[in-house]
């Protein structure tokens, strides 16, 4: 599930966002921004931004989650690098950025939702979103959207307004799908006890009713041990012997 999710996200970020000059939120958005401006490799930049947050996850959420998050971040970077180097597919949607935003939001939301549902993360922004969501009342999709919005505001200084607005639409769609998929995971593994069904309740009532009509027979008390005084003990120890005078 984690590998499929990271593959979908890498596919969407390169073939739709990068090719059609859409931005992205989170650390991936910063990596794409560095690729647009300075030509930095987006896969390596994203992984370097993720490493400090993964170390924080080790401290806050345990070693097991840190290993899963590290595996997810490395998988995403490798899939993105493969798409950038070897994929022959070209998805040109410059004439319809609305379609690009919708496809990007759907693929990104499904991919990120699968990764989070598997108990992993694709990067540092995912880890921060999970931590903030667990320690607040915000849904995880809302946290994703707010964090991505900060990066998109920064992108306005370097990206055209039109592409940034369509990117916000893609981020909003992905946030809704992430919330939907992760809520389904929680509902499929409820932590609280479920209410018994009606037949089960009726069976319990019948069992209680039968048990109330049964008369419980108390066991007979054990006979109490006789307590003898010292004089009684001395008399019980005396046996009858014929006397020397012929009396009994």
TrEMBL record:
Provide the species name.
Paenibacillus gallinarum
Query: Where in the sequence is the signal peptide annotated?
Result: none
User: What membrane topology is annotated for this entry?
Assistant: Multi-pass membrane protein
Protein name as annotated: YitT family protein
Q: Where in the cell is it found?
A: Cell membrane
Which spans are transmembrane here?
35-58, 65-82, 94-116, 137-158
Q: Which UniProt keywords are listed?
A: Cell membrane, Membrane, Transmembrane, Transmembrane helix
Entries under InterPro entries matching the protein: UPF0750_membrane, YitT
Highest taxon of the lineage: Bacteria
One family name in Pfam for this protein: YitT_membrane
Q: What is its main location?
A: membrane
């Amino acid at each position: 599930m984690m590998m499929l999710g990271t593959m979908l996200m890498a596919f969407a970020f390169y073939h739709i966002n990068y090719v059609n000059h859409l931005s992205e939120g989170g650390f991936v958005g910063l990596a794409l921004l560095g690729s647009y401006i300075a030509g930095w490799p987006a896969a390596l930049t994203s992984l370097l931004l993720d490493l400090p947050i993964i170390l924080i996850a080790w401290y806050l959420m345990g070693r097991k989650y840190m290993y899963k998050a590290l595996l997810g971040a490395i998988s995403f970077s490798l899939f993105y690098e493969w798409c950038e180097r070897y994929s022959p597919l070209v998805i040109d949607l410059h004439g319809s950025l609305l379609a690009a935003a919708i496809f990007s939001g759907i693929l990104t939301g499904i991919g990120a939702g699968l990764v989070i549902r598997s108990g992993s993360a694709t990067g540092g922004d995912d880890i921060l979103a999970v931590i903030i969501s667990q320690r607040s009342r915000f849904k995880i999709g809302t946290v994703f959207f707010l964090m991505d919005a900060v990066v998109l505001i920064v992108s306005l200084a370097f990206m055209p307004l039109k592409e940034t607005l369509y990117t916000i639409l893609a981020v909003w769609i992905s946030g809704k799908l992430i919330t939907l998929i992760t809520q389904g995971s929680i509902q499929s593994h409820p932590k609280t006890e479920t209410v018994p069904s009606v037949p089960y309740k009726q069976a319990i009532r019948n069992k209680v009713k039968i048990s109330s009509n049964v008369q419980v027979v108390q066991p007979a008390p054990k006979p109490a041990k006789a307590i003898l005084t010292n004089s009684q003990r001395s008399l019980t120890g005396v046996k009858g012997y014929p006397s020397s005078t012929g009396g009994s």
